[in-house]
Amino acid sequence: MPSPPRKTASPTGALSLRIDLAGGRIGPGKISLLETIDREGSISAAGRALGMSYKRAWDLVDALNRILGTPVLATSPGGHRGGGAVLTEAGRSLVADYRAIERAARRAAEPRLAALARRARA
Fold first, then answer.
1. Most-buried pick from 3, 65, 76, 112 (CB within 10 A)?
2. CB 20 within 8 A of CB 70
3. Backbone angles phi, psi at 76, to 5 degrees
4. Is position 10 within any domain?
5. Is residue 61 within 8 Å of 46, Cβ to Cβ?
6. pTM for the model
7. Treating both helix axes as pointing N-terminal to C-terminal, what angle do 43-50 and 28-40 enclose, rounded to 10 degrees?
8. Any stretches that span the bilayer, and where are they (predicted)?
9. What is the spatial distance between Cα 67 and Cα 56, in angstroms, rounded to a whole number?
10. What rounded mean pLDDT belongs to the chain?
11. How many Å apart are CA 73 and CA 87, to the nearest integer?
12. 14 lies in some domain
């Protein structure tokens, strides 16, 4: 299964954040999946948008549920009207917290990333 396209590095370098918790790892892929589910309204549509199977998307959501100990999505069954998924409060908080940590880390790392990028171009 192809990976989602990577963002190209900025001229000053890029930072990719992964958070290791007792129950597992949360990184940009899982957060992007939650954001895409929120936008698309279903796990299957989000999987298609990100180039992954429904099973892979569901496995990532299940991993997040286990890490947090609470569901990150509320789902409604499929059928002729189609199913759907929305982020729970825990899911929304996870995305917000991750993005806030990511912004803070980027701000803190920016001067050193810029210096490293300058040395790499030299």
1. 65
2. no
3. -120, 145
4. no
5. no
6. 0.84
7. 120
8. none
9. 17
10. 89
11. 4
12. no
